[in-house]
Design brief:
- The structure holds 3 protein chains of 3 kinds.
- By secondary structure, chain A is α/β, with parallel strands linked by helices.
- In chain A, about 50% of the residues lie in helices and about 15% in strands.
- In chain A, strands 7-6-8-5-9 form a 5-stranded mixed β-sheet. In chain A, strands 2-1-3-11 form a 4-stranded mixed β-sheet. A two-stranded antiparallel sheet of chain A has the order 4-12.
- Chain B has a domain of about 130 residues: P-loop containing nucleotide triphosphate hydrolases (Rossmann fold).
- Helix content of chain B is about 30%, strand content about 25%.
- Chain B has a 6-stranded mixed β-sheet, with helices on both faces.
- In chain B, α6 links the parallel β7 and β8.
- Chain B is globular, with a radius of gyration of 18 Å.
- Chain C is mostly helical.
- Chain C folds into 2 domains: about 35 residues; about 230 residues, Orthogonal Bundle (MetI-like fold), CATH 1.10.3720.10.
- In chain C, about 80% of the residues lie in helices and about 0% in strands.
- Chain C contains 15 helices and no strands.
- Classes of the chains: A alpha/beta, B alpha/beta, C mainly alpha.
- Chains in contact: A-B, A-C, B-C.
- The interface between A and C is large, with 34 and 38 residues.
- The structure holds adenosine-5'-diphosphate (ADP) and magnesium ion (MG).
- Adenosine-5'-diphosphate (ADP) binds next to β2 and α1 of chain B.
């Protein structure tokens, strides 16, 4: 049995060695290139921006190093917009947030993580690019889905994420509602249209990317309500002929805003880099990258430079029709709001 | 080394398992503790060995109070009712265990351990089974391994809890005669638990009766030709 | 209608066996094979590139690190629990027994949220820790905690009933023979449950490596920092990077297969330990 004891000691030793090794690997793996980064910042973003920020980060990092000699590593965290705001509230150390809608950053402002008036700190309501909501349909559009009213027709199966968890879904919802108002319908009729739409929802995913996967990969539903950029990405990824984009005549002007998180940048001393990073989004290069990824740039020339043509859509904003995000959130999406009534009645 | 139990009581919950039990085993004596199942025999043995603490009363070895002494330091040999052999160790390692776990200063060198274990296995006539696992032995063989293991640390006191309980009659008789011889040869003080009256009478110098937690009477065996003579004078009568 | 017929005609038997195999193929073999087919769709080179890409490597290392902490912690806990609960009776023992299984009963998302609640910035404790520059949630410590929580019962579950059925006889025998607590533990108790312990460790490791739900909640999904391998797979999948996702998934599948083989091997030995 001394043998046994010795063996135990030996395996304990081996185990300690493995742990030590892992720790050393772990600490040495902070930066892939081998050069330790001077600054590291974290961008907490929503789901469909993965591809956009991969390019933006590469371009910004390169330019910033050339200009200042500082090498920056930008870490990304992606998830549903509301979920990301929640994570930052709970302590996710994001230096900047690039979310799907202003309300999610307002929440951070309410808790003192972002300074009040954040939306005026950068041009265009702190929204460097915009998007709109379009339809993705099956090839040849067999169900003839052309406009918002078609979504509430009986027998149409709609895929959208859940407005409770997804910023994109709230845009979808308000787009449908607003389009009805813009078409001269009354509030009650708009409500009836949106109720009909959600009656037709086959699958309610938690995030925009999940819905896209449901529609494209799993082949469920007749129509997917999606960000314009997300629709184009799905189109590119799945190959032409599998899905088609339908742009409705009227839709919402979706303004996904960006902001630094003051509490985090002040603690970490990263304000300068974080601000430069967000400003880069407004630069010609940043605008061109946005356009390349099918976000509508604020500078119209950037679209042409990126070789993108955005079809004309008559857009309305949340401020125009819903009195801003706080009001829209309260009336439609908070617990006991109108959206809940659709599901209670279902 | 003499054993003395003075007015020991022990309850398990509300159940009084031992009620003011006193008992003496003289140096070199071989005493049988006889009683029906559930009468508290095992409990009493465990208290003597230090595996259980009495609620009241004291245990003395060689006149010294050992009630608070840890089981490890009492240096008693204990043969458990169900042997309690180390299932993952060979017969040899079972017997060697007590020697191997001695404090470094007292631990005999490996050659001595080998010699001693081989001797003991010879003594219990199992030297050819040293490599087997306990599960590969018969009941009687296991019993003898348990005994060899208890004797390895050269205890002055040997406690045996129904050592032959689960053996068939023939093996049983053989073993108890052999045990008696061993007791005399290596000068032990032995307390032997049984619920078999015949066995108690045949093997012991003296019989102590335990009934429902009370030690009632002690008696010399029927064939009291053996020495040393019993200390107690009360007579035994079959119930 | 005269001669008694065999109860299950050959055709029925064949049909049932065929169905069983079809079910196994449908639910196990085909999906598993699909993972490897997808992973190697563009050849071994592409697979190698996908698993050695920095984010994938980091995810792999993080996963191994987390397992290297969670598994020993839970093995130690499982042994302690097995020993205390298996060998002793004390008031509250049943409550503890029930509580050990709690992580199995609790949904992984709740398991994750518990830690966000306890250590998040908005909690008292989390606020204090943040004030001292210690990050728990959305950082490696949170992932370790969540994994420890989720894999908590595996070893204990194997050991408690076994140690209980083995009883304390051998420990008492060792004590009477002069062995101290640690000696007894190392030479008697531990060898007696060696295989069951390894078995529990294998299950625990498999889960620690594969855990998605709870870790997803506390991770923060920071690429190259707090993404474990399962989270990395999800992230890649969401980016339409299917080949990369399946290459990483193939690593997880290999771990699962290795665990299954180890399990099959160990369960044979663990059976011997029952008294
Ligand atoms: N650990 C224990 N817990 C509860 N009751 C016990 C315990 N040990 C013994 N007893 C009870 O004490 C009584 C005497 O037991 P024991 O000493 O084993 O008797 P014997 O060995 O004479 O058969 C029995 O009724 C038994 O149920
Ligand atoms: Mg008994």
């Amino acid at each position: 049995m001394t043998l046994h004891g010795r063996r135990l000691f030996r395996s304990a030793g081996a185990f300690a060695a493995v742990v030590a090794l892992l720790f050393s690997l772990h600490s040495s793996s902070g930066h892939a290139a081998g050069v330790p980064p001077d600054v590291e910042i974290l961008n907490a973003s929503y789901d469909p921006t993965r591809e956009l920020y991969r390019d933006v980060n590469a371009a910004f990092t390169k330019g910033y190093r050339e200009r200042t000699g500082t090498s920056v590593t930008i870490r990304m965290s992606h998830g549903g917009s509301g979920k990301q705001a929640r994570a930052v509230l709970d302590g996710l150390q994001a230096d900047v947030v690039t979310l799907a809608l202003a309300y999610d950053i307002d929440v951070l402002a309410d808790r003192g993580l972002v300074k009040p008036g954040w939306q005026t700190r950068l041009p265009h309501n702190s929204t460097p690019y915009t998007s709109t909501i379009v339809f993705l349909v099956r090839p040849g559009n067999p169900k003839k889905i052309l406009d918002w009213t078609d979504l509430a027709r009986p027998g149409i199966s709609v895929v959208t994420p859940n407005p409770k968890t997804s910023g994109g879904a709230r845009w979808n919802y308000l787009a449908a509602w607003g389009a009805a108002l813009k078409a001269g319908k009354k509030e009650a009729e708009a409500r009836e249209l949106v109720a009909g739409l959600f009656r037709n929802v086959a699958v309610l995913d938690t995030g925009a990317r999940g819905s896209t996967t449901t529609f494209v990969q799993r082949g469920l539903g007749d129509v997917l309500l999606a960000w314009e950029n997300e629709a184009h990405l799905a189109l590119a990824e799945t190959g032409k002929g599998r899905v088609e984009i339908v742009v409705p005549k009227t839709s919402i002007l979706a303004e996904p805003p960006v902001s630094i998180v003051d509490a985090v940048v002040d603690r970490r001393g990263t304000r300068a880099v974080a601000e430069a990073y967000l400003r880069f989004l407004y630069s010609p290069e940043g605008q061109q990258l946005a356009a390349k990824h099918h976000y509508r740039p604020r500078v119209p020339e950037a679209a042409a430079k990126a070789g993108r043509a955005f079809p004309a859509v008559a857009t309305f904003t949340v401020d125009d029709l819903f009195g801003g995000w706080r009001a829209a959130q309260k009336k439609h999406f908070d617990d006991g709001g109108i959206f809940d009534s659709f599901f209670v009645n279902r | 080394m003499s054993i003395e139990v003075r007015s020991v009581s022990k309850s398990f919950g509300s159940f009084l398992a031992l009620d003011d039990v006193s008992l003496q085993v003289g140096d070199g004596e071989f005493v049988a503790l006889l009683g029906p199942s559930g009468s508290g025999k095992t409990s009493l043995l465990r208290i003597i060995a230090g595996l259980e603490e009495p609620d009241r009363g004291t245990v003395h070895f060689h006149g010294e109070d050992a009630t608070r002494r840890d089981a490890r330091e009492r240096r008693v040999g204990f043969v458990f009712q169900h042997y309690a052999l180390f299932r993952r160790m060979s017969v040899f390692e079972n017997v060697a265990f007590g020697l191997r776990v001695k404090p470094r200063a007292e631990r005999p060198p490996e050659t001595d351990v080998k010699r001693r274990v081989t001797e003991l296995l010879k003594l219990v006539q199992l030297d050819w089974l040293g490599d087997r696992l306990p599960s590969e032995l018969s009941g009687g063989q296991r019993q003898r391994v348990a005994l060899a293991r208890a004797l390895a640390v050269e205890p002055k006191v040997l406690l045996l809890d129904e050592p032959f309980g689960s053996l068939d009659a023939r093996v049983r008789q053989e073993l108890r005669r052999w045990l008696r011889r061993l007791h005399d040869e290596i000068h032990l003080t032995s307390l032997f638990v049984t619920h078999d009256q015949e066995e108690a009478l045949e093997v012991a110098d003296r019989v102590v009766l335990l009934d429902r937690g009370r030690s009632s009477r002690t008696a010399p065996p029927r064939s009291s030709s053996r020495s040393p003579p019993p200390r107690s004078s009360s007579t035994f009568s079959a119930r | 209608m005269s001669a008694p017929r065999p109860r299950e005609p050959l055709a029925v038997r064949l049909l049932l066996i065929g169905l069983a195999f079809a079910a196994i193929a449908l639910f196990l073999v085909i999906p598993l094979a699909a993972v490897f087919v997808e992973a190697f769709r563009h050849g071994a080179g592409a697979w190698l590139a996908a698993v050695s890409e920095p984010d994938a490597r980091h995810a792999l290392k993080l996963t191994l690190l987390v397992a290297a902490i969670a598994v020993p912690v839970n093995a130690a806990f499982g042994l302690a629990a097995g020993w205390a609960l298996g060998k002793f009776r004390f008031p509250g023992r049943n409550l503890v027994l029930t509580l050990i299984d709690l992580p199995f009963a609790v949904s992984p998302i709740v398991a994750g949220l518990v830690f966000v609640l306890a250590f998040g910035r908005s909690s008292l404790l989390g606020g204090w820790l943040a004030g001292h520059g210690i990050e728990v949630v959305f950082a490696v410590p949170g992932i370790v905690l969540a994994t420890v929580f989720v894999t908590f019962p595996f070893v204990a579950r194997e050991l408690v009933p076994l140690m209980q059925s083995q009883g304390t006889d051998e420990e008492e025998a060792a004590r009477v023979l002069g062995a101290g607590f640690f000696t007894t533990f190392l030479r008697v108790t531990l060898p007696n449950v060696k295989w069951a312990l390894l078995y529990g460790i294998v299950l625990c490791t498999a889960r620690a490596v594969g855990e998605f739900g709870a870790v997803s909640v506390v991770s923060g999904h920071i690429r190259g920092a707090t993404n474990t391998l399962p989270l990395h797979v999800e992230a890649l999948y969401n980016e339409y990077a299917f080949q990369g996702a399946f290459a990483a998934a193939s690593l997880l599948t290999l771990v699962a297969l290795a665990a299954m083989l180890a399990k099959a091997f160990l369960s044979r030995h663990a059976g011997e330990e029952a008294p």
